[in-house]
Amino acid sequence: MKKIILACIGILLFTSLACGQSLLDNADYRKAKELQRLAEQAMAEGDYDQAYAYSEEAKEYIAKAEEVAVRRWLQYRAYNWNRQAGDRLAYVKAIGGDVTYADAYNQAAERFERAQQAFEAENYEQSITYAKEVMALLEDVRAAPK
To answer: What is the CA radius of gyration of the chain?
Structure first.
């Protein structure tokens, strides 16, 4: 029983380190840390059943905190991909690529609109996919030599 509880506490410690600093402002993470502290205290007092109960509850809070961290990371990635796609679209328009490469530009503009809509709907993975499509469609567009 003692080994199981120690393993649970070890998993919690590893998970908390793996999630990084973005969890520090997360209420679920703070609750998990408090439960982890209580589990360690119960363990030191010899109350192994209570220690196990605290560590099990802490695992649930860690899982919720990780979900929030992953969501934030995806939001950050989607924001950056959308920014790059928007910049590329603006550049192509500025060099006249919306006329010279009208088909590619129009497809890219439509994908960019979808990327923005997906981002607003918090569908970050789909938003990233559309933004990458914008970049791929406009990859070969260059300014005409002067």
So the answer is: 24
